[in-house]
Structures are given as C-alpha cells and as structure tokens.
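During the reporting period the student researcher (J.K.) took over the structure-prediction task from the postdoctoral fellow and processed the backlog of single-chain submissions. One of the processed entries is reproduced below for the supervisory committee.
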Amino acid sequence: MAFSYVDYTVSVATPGPFSFAAIDGYITLSHIKVYQNGTLLNTTQYTIDGTTEEVTLDTSADPGDVIRIRRETPNLSTEYTVPFQDGSILRSRDLRLAQSQALYISQEFDDFNVTISGSPDSGDILSWNGTEYVFIPPGSLGLADGTYGDIVVTNSGSSWAVKDGIYGDISVSSGGSSWTFTGSVILPPDGTYGDVVVSGSGTVWTVTGLSTTLNELTNVNAPSPTDGQVLTWDNAASEWQAKDPTGGLVGTIDGGDATSTYLTSIDGGTA
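J.K. obtained the following structure tokens:
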C-alpha cells in the first residue's frame, strides 16, 4: 500500500476531479504534485481543492493516461517545517509538524525506494514483479521468438538483438555487432570485456566470437564437407547437412570435338 501517492488510469477522456484523500496526510497543499504519464505538471495546468482534496486538470486526460497525485515533502536541512531556535516555546502543534515532516519523508522513501531481492545467476536480468525487482533468466520473460519493433528475439526468447540503426546517442551497425556512442553517454575505458572490445576512447563497442562459417550456424551441420557436396535440408534432423547431390544430370559430357561430344546418361536413362 502506498502512503504518499495515488494513481488513476483514465478510461474515458476527463479532466477529473481526481481525489488524493487516500494520501496519508500532508503539511501544505504546495507539497501535493500532479504527474501525467510520468511528467510533472505545472501548477497552471490544474486546480487543487484542499477542502475536497481533489485535483481537476485544465485539459481532459485521454483514455489510457495515468494520473499520479503525489506528496513530496521537503527533505533538505534548509527546509525544516519548524525552524527551532534557542529560547523558543515548544508548542504541541510545532512538535507535531516536525514529527510529521520526518514521518512523511520516511513514507516517501519507503514508497519509492528500489528493493532488489535474491542473487543473480549468470545472464539473469532484473524484472519488476509489482512490489520489487527480482532476478530472472531471460527465457522466463515469456516472449515468443519474433521481431518486436527494433528488437529481434530468438532462441526461445533467451536472445535479444538490436537491428542496425540509430538509437539516440547509439549507432548500431555490422549486423548489431558494432555500437558507436556519441553525446554524454558514460563509457568504460578501452579494453576487452569478454566478447566485447571497446575502442575509440570508449565510443566503439565491437562484439567478437560471432559466427564466421556456415557450420557455426545453429541449424547447419556440415563440419567436414567434401568436393561436390551441397547443403541439403534434412527434415527429420531439422538442419542443413552436407550431402552428395542426387537427381538431375548424372554421368559425363565428353570434352572432345563437336562430332564426339556426347551425353552418357540423364537420370539413369541412356542418351
């Protein structure tokens, strides 16, 4: 349960009102902030009613929009709600406000602090389960192999690759094996990191160990082909194999002069 915010997913276009009565208190209305689809709204974009504890947008939210009303209590040492001074009279109201500020800051930290559970195995990724981040293997994402925009998923959902193209400050090329960074991206120093070689003062990343022969492809089994063999699909094995050709032209064409050139056989039949 959240203490410091409430979310609304809009089903039909509406400006509200949206209630924030479920928020566990606040010190002043100026601490109540409104977000639309993750973007903080300016106070000129909505009106707030402290009596009814409701927010009404100046412009209707569209279906599917997420409206978050969130309490943000000042948490800097220069922003004490009650600035105590020597010789001050301690009133119960002042003590309550000071305690409320500490309580609200603690609640907000609890609501938005990232919690990660478990220990990762090699290749695991972080996934949000609704309450915290947990480590899961890529194959458990449930995505079927296929193309999702610029992402290609293979190997039963366990491998993800990015298509060549420009993605903000990242340029991907060479079949996804080379990444070039521009702008203010934080980069590692040049060097070798497993199968990734970083160069150009950290701006160029090149993947090594990529398949360079047909036999390295996962659906090709041709470790030692001989002269004249061709790749043939073996449906039972679900793979391409190196095999001698069958059917078509069988026999030889003698290389003599025009009068002696002849076809010995076609598919086993005589010429």
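The committee noted the following: Helices lie at 92-112.
J.K. will present the remaining backlog at the next meeting.
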